[in-house]
Amino acid sequence: MNHLTPLVNQSDATSTSLEPSSVLVVKRHHILVRWSHWLNVPLLLGLILSGISIYWASPIYQHRPDPVTGNFDVAADIGIWICAYVPGQHQYASPPDWVYNHMSLGPGILAVALRMHWLCAYLFMLNGVVYVAGLVMGRGWRALLPHRADLVDALRMLRYYLGFPFAKLTRRECLHRGFNTKYNALQRAAYFSIPAAGFLSVATGWAIHRPMQLHWLATLFGGFDAARVWHFWLMWLFIVFVVPHVILVLADGWDTLRSMIVGWSTKVDRLGVIANEQ
Amino acid sequence: MNNEEKGNSLDPEDIPSTSARPKLETTKLTDAALEDTNPAAPIDTETLQAVEAIEEQGDADGSPSLSANQQPRTDEAASPVAVNSGSAKKPHSFFGERPLPLIDMAPRVLRYRTRRDLMLFSAGAVAAVAGTGFLLPQTTLSRMGVRGDINSRANNWLLNKTLRIDDDVAEALYSPNRMVPTYTKSQITPIKNNYNGATPDPGYISGWSLTLEGLASGLSVSLDIRKLMNRFPVHEQITRLVCVEGWSAVAWWAGLRFYDLLRAYPSIAQAKWARVESSVNLDASGNPDPYFASIDLATARHPQTLLATHLSGQPLTVEHGAPLRLLVPVKLGLKNVKAITRITYTAEEPKDYWSEYGYSSYDGL
After folding, report:
1. What gap in Å lies between CA B208 and CA B324, rounded to an integer?
2. pLDDT tens for each residue of B294-323
3. Tens digit of pLDDT for each residue in B160-210?
């Protein structure tokens, strides 16, 4: 390890070297934050897939049974619709199961799905503790707290993101306002809401899981049945978050992705301002 | 105006001297093309912070002493500024965001760490995919086109272990003194007949009797419904029945307390469980398929655990387990055995009808 030090000093001495002698970096994410971030991928996937298998056993959204098929499940209707109108799906063997076959572990496996759900849920809760520990130890938690002016700024960022592809196509300039914080207002809103949604998912999960011993928790969400509805839509919040999250990270470039794997980021734009000032 | 709000979003106190601000605003306007344009003042404190932070930082990764190369950027140019603002520096608000400490790193080191962590990351990703394949149910895997039986005993071991942990948590949460919520008659919801097989023919009701076994007396006792209803006080309650499938129903039940039966016919001293059985249960094609579930005696003694005889003020119908069903609102619906014909007290935990299908046998709510 020590042999690296003289090497660096050498390159410092030779100013003709192509490589800069040093690069300024910031530690963007604590190692525990990075670990818990990536562990969320399999855990949330497991929770969602097993969760929809559990949903199959007693769907929240039901209607009067169809006189012909006896079907009452809205999710089954969606499957039937997909098989009827989506090209390439017309030959699908069991249209009512389409949604469950594509978005869950499968229909009719409640017992396995429940056990998988508990396994992922306990690990997800542990992971949440790891994440919070990482936020505290890495002092990153303050960067997630929303500011007072964030609502307007977040909408402005949203407009920027939505307008960006169009601006690229028309070769117009599309600038967003600078910000001197770790995250912009929209990011703060997202990165604050998602841990909050994780917490609420766990809370509603317990409210459904132990509605008698923890009946106060179920009451907090409007009762057992309402807690199920909460739990269901909180899942959609994660799904809706993930899509732009992944697109924007990839669009933002390697440095941003690297900062969640390695921790370091070379995006220290503020330094440019220091140089200008001098 | 918004500029100011943004710049100050950390905290107004971050800006040491108000005189610096007009200059700032102009810098901002001219540098508008720069992605990041921000007040100089926070930067001054930031550089200071960098110096401080690096001293205490070490390497959070616990990676080798490569951090020796990390030199804080305290060159001749930056430090005077920092010193100037040092005197004016005010404490951050507790919730105010702190700037990230800047660290000088040799590109070599950054590359080395990137490579190392990427390899670790890839190994983790491969492990996650392998683990997923290992955990997924066979039916899911075969639908995905994965052949062969990679689901092993170890997979079941892990899932069953999880179930036991979850049951232990439920048992720890359980308090014999905690009552389940009760409802008013206006909150009653329809309750469906969820017999897992065919609904039995009501012919059994006329010859029905309840047999008690595992009693302290060593005898086997047989009770008919008239005797049960005359001998014990009737209790009413409007409680929620929650099914493992996820649906629930608020219903108005009446019947005798299990506890009263236990006091009248005490179990053997070492008994910890009651096995509750219905011999009239049928499978889907209408063949006899006795249904059974266990409850621990602590649950049986709970004041809201009834041997119900009435639903909505009427004697139980055959769909709901006439003439006597177990109503145990602190447990999932599958423990609420309909048309009970036999109760056996045991020291060892009896099996549940559903346990061999992979369901919990504690089922505490």
Report:
1. 9
2. 999 989 999 999 999 999 999 999 989 889
3. 888 889 989 988 888 888 999 999 999 999 998 888 888 888 888 888 999
Query: How far is the C-alpha of A136 from the C-alpha of A32, rounded, in Å?
Result: 10
Decide if A23 touches B, using CB distance below 8 A. Answer: yes
| Phi, psi of B223, deg, nearest 5 | -125, 135
pLDDT at residue number B153? 63
- Mean pLDDT to the nearest integer, B67-79: 40
| Chain B residue numbers touching A8 (CB-CB < 8 A) | 69, 106, 108-109
Residues of A in contact with B107 (CB under 8 A): 19-20, 22-23
Q: How far apart are CA A182 and CA A176, in angstroms?
A: 15
What is the rounded distance in angstroms from the CA atom of residue B180 to the CA atom of residue B73?
Answer: 63
Residue in A11, A215, A270 closest to B38 by CB: A270
Model ipTM value: 0.75
Contact B314, B240 (CB under 8 A): no
Confidence of residue B88 (pLDDT cuts 50, 70, 90): very low
Q: Is the dihedral of CA A194, A200, A204, A205 positive or negative?
A: positive
**Chain A residues 109-148 with CB within 8 Å of chain B:** 109-116, 118-119, 122, 137-139, 142-143, 145, 147-148
Which secondary-structure segment (H or E) carries A276? helix A270-277
pTM of the model: 0.77
Q: How does residue A66 score in pLDDT terms, banded at 50, 70 and 90?
A: confident
DSSP string, B297-325: HHHHTSTT-EEEEEETTEEPPGGGTTT-E
Confirm if B265 and B212 have CB atoms less than 8 A apart: yes
d(CA A44, CA A32): 17
Among residues A137, A153, A135, the alpha carbon closest in space to that of A194 is found at A135
Test A149 with B5 for CB contact under 8 angstroms. yes
